[in-house]
Structures are given as structure tokens and as C-alpha cells.
Description:
- The protein is mostly helical.
- It is 69% helix and 0% strand.
- The chain has helices at residues 2-6, 14-22, 24-33, 37-48.
- It is globular and about 40 Å long.
Amino acid sequence: MDLYMESPQLLPREYGELADRFGLKQTVVDFVGGLTDAGAVQLFNKHYIPII
């Protein structure tokens, strides 16, 4: 969650409009809460595991 709060441009494009309407924190909570386990692991790997 911290990653998206600090770098909201990493959220999918459609969430930008939601952030304007409902606030960034609620938008990030909704995005993270809607992730499947596989989706969360995929995003973790994308943002935190370096490609060697």
C-alpha cells in the first residue's frame, strides 16, 4: 500500500479518476483490496524483485 501512496502513478490509469473523486487513500485501499493472491504476488515481483 505504501508504494501506491508514495507513487500513485503506478496505479492502473482508471484509478486516477477514482483518486480525484474519492481520495488517494481510499482508492489505494480499494485497489489493493481487490487484488487476487496471484495478482498481488505478480505486482510484488514486478516492483520489488530485481531482474537479473
